[in-house]
Each structure stands twice: as structure tokens, then as C-alpha cells.
Specification:
By secondary structure, the protein is an alpha+beta fold. The protein is 20% helix and 35% strand. It contains two helices and nine strands. The strands form two sheets. The chain has a six-stranded mixed sheet with strand order 4-5-6-7-8-9, sandwiched between helices. The longest helix is centred in the C-terminal third of the chain and has 18 residues. The protein is globular.
């Protein structure tokens, strides 16, 4: 696994196997093997983190969530819905080498996530390259996304105290 960097998440064990296109990772949510690209490495870590540390219930976490923008079919990387079925968080995952610390790059990734969220309507938007995480909350009064200092506690959307 030397090709995949250490990320800014807790250390997780994943089921891996060697496939025709390189490594594959078992996606427990979808019950399928996926090619382990750098972005998929980030996505699998984020899903585990949201489920195990931030209160998301795995059954309510969707990957490659369909979004229709201007008649074009797009897909949001991760959407977490609350127990009521309404989206509460939209996450855009990038490969670790995508420089989210650069303002212009982060602004472009946020713009992409905001476009998706204009359809999805989640309260929170999260950007991550696995090393840097940028979290935002929709501020209804100000009509804009406000940066958060940390990941949101998603347990409130599931009635978990």
C-alpha cells in the first residue's frame, strides 16, 4: 500500500485485494470491490470517519449521489441523509495531491460542491483531500456558506444523543 499516503483520519483497516487494474478495496456500503484510486482511498476513509466518529448512520450514507444540473447528469461523491431522508451533508472528495491549501483550488472545489448542493440542499458541505478538510454550513440569515472549525456532529440528524 505504499502508493497511498497517510491521511488526516484515524487509521482504518480495509479489505484489499490485488486486481487486474491494481489494488481494489471492498466497499462495505455497496457490497462491491472498487479500484483503489487515490480519490477512492480518501472517500473510504471519510465514510468510515463520518460513520464511526461523527454520528452518521451507514445506511444513510450514499456514494455517487445523482445530481441533475442543467439537464446534465452529475454525481456528488458522498451525501449523508438524516433519519427523515433529507440530505444533511454533501462531501466532495479529491485525491491527496489536489492542493486544497491553495485558495484558488479550494474555491474551485467549493464552487463544484455548492453547485451540487444547490440541487441536494444539505446543511453542510465538506471538502477533503484526506489531508485537509474544509467544512461549511449554510447560513440562512446571511445567505452564504460559513466556514466551520471542525466536522459537524451528524448524530443530531439521527436522534442519537
Amino acid at each position: 500500500m505504499g502508493a497511498f499516503p497517510v491521511l488526516n483520519f484515524p487509521e482504518y483497516c480495509f479489505r484489499l485485494r490485488s486486481g487486474s487494474g491494481g489494488y481494489e478495496v471492498w466497499d462495505a456500503l455497496r457490497g462491491i470491490w472498487l479500484v483503489l484510486t487515490p480519490e477512492e482511498w480518501v472517500r473510504q476513509h471519510l465514510i468510515r470517519f463520518l460513520s464511526e466518529r461523527m454520528g452518521a448512520v451507514p445506511q444513510y450514507v450514499s456514494q455517487e449521489y445523482p445530481v441533475s444540473l442543467g439537464g446534465m447528469s452529475q454525481r456528488a461523491d458522498i451525501v449523508v441523509c438524516g433519519r427523515d431522508g433529507k440530505p444533511c451533508l454533501l462531501a466532495e472528495c479529491k485525491a491527496p495531491d489536489v492542493a486544497l491549501e491553495e485558495e484558488g483550488v479550494a474555491r474551485n472545489v467549493l464552487a463544484q460542491a455548492v453547485r451540487y448542493n444547490s440541487v441536494v440542499g444539505a446543511r453542510y458541505v465538506l471538502l477533503t483531500n484526506g489531508r485537509r478538510h474544509l467544512c461549511f454550513e449554510w447560513d440562512t440569515r446571511a445567505g452564504r456558506y460559513a466556514p466551520l472549525g471542525n466536522f459537524p456532529d451528524l448524530s443530531v440528524f439521527f436522534g442519537i444523543e
